[in-house]
Amino acid sequence: MSGPRALEPVSGVRVRMTVAYVGAGFFGWQIQPDRRTVQGELKRALGRLMGREVSVVGAGRTDTGVNARGQVAHVTVANAEEAARIPRALPGMLPADMTVTDVRAVPVDFNARFSAVARRYSYHLYLGRDIFRSLCWQIAKPLDRAAMDAAAVHFRGSRDCTSLCKTASLKDDGNICVIDLCAFEWGPDSAILHVRANRFLHHMVRIMVGTLVEVGLGRRSPESIPEMLAARNRGRAGAMAPPEGLFLEKVYYPDIPCEGENA
C-alpha cells in the first residue's frame, strides 16, 4: 500500500533487520498508545542499546495476533560501530516472543517499506483439534482439497481485490494486486496456503483463506471465485480467517529476487 513518504535523515549508517515474532502477545506491528506492539518493543530495545531515541520503519503493518518470520525494518545509526552493536546485543535485549534473525548494512536510501517489491505470506490450517497447536486455524470438518486447489488458481494474476479488503480500508487506486503465487501445500492433517503479491490489502489473506475454506466445506464452488472478485464487494467473499494462522514470511527487495523461488 502506498502513501506519503516521510523524509528521513540520510546521514549515518542505515541497517536492515529481519524480525520474527509470535503475534499473540502484540497489538500488531505499529506503535499504539498504551498497547504492546512489535514496533514499540523494537524501538524501546534499540533506544536502550543506542542510549537515545531511534526511529524504526517497518515493511508493513501486521494486525493483532498475526505472526512473522520475515518482517523487515530499518533504522539509521550514527556510525559503523553502532551498527555492529545491533547483531551482537539486540537479540538478547528483546522479549521471548520476538527476535532479530538477520542484520545488515544497506545503502542510506534503502527504505523497508518503500523499497519492497513483493511480500509473501503463509496461512496455516490444522485439520483437527489439538490444544497444543496454537499458531493455526483448527478445522475439525473434512475439506475438499481438490476444490480448494482449483479455487486458489483463480486468485493468481493481476486482480482487483476490493472484495478481499476491509471496506473501511479501501483506497481509491483501484485496489489491484499482482498475485504470482497462490497455492496450497498439503500434509496428512494440515494445509499451508502460500500467497505472494506485489501488495496486500487490509485483511486480504485472511479473507482469501476464509473464502477458500468455504469452498472446501462445499458452501461455494471454485468457479464462484472470479464472480466474487468481479463484484468488488466485501460481502460477496467469505468470513475472515482468525489471525493466529497467518505469517508474514518474507519481504522482497531488488537484491532478493523471487523468480523461481519455491513456496
CATH architecture of the largest domain: 2-Layer Sandwich
What is the third-level CATH name, the topology of the largest domain? Alpha-Beta Plaits
From N to C, what is the helix and strand string?
Answer: EHEEHEEEHEEEHHE
List the domain count as a whole number: 2
Number of distinct beta strands: 10
Evaluate the radius of gyration. 19 Å
Instruction: Indicate the structural class.
Output: alpha+beta
Describe this structure in words.
Strands 1, 2, 3, 4, 5, 6, 7, 8, 9 and 10 form a 10-stranded mixed β-sheet that branches. The protein has helices spanning 38-50, 80-93, 145-153, 204-216, 224-231, and strands at residues 13-21, 57-58, 67-77, 98-106, 118-126, 137-138, 157-160, 176-187, 190-197, 246-252. A hairpin with an 8-residue loop joins strand 2 and strand 3. Mean pLDDT is 93; it is low at 1-9. Helix content is 22%, strand content 28%. It has 2 domains: 13-105, Pseudouridine synthase I, catalytic domain, N-terminal subdomain (Alpha-Beta Plaits, 2-Layer Sandwich); 118-252, Alpha-Beta Plaits, CATH 3.30.70.660. The chain is globular. By secondary structure, the chain is α+β, with helices and mostly antiparallel strands. The protein starts with 12 loop residues before the first strand and ends in an 11-residue tail after the last strand. It contains 5 helices and 10 strands, in the order βαββαβββαβββααβ. Helix 1 (38-50) packs across helix 2 (80-93) and helix 3 (145-153) packs across helix 4.
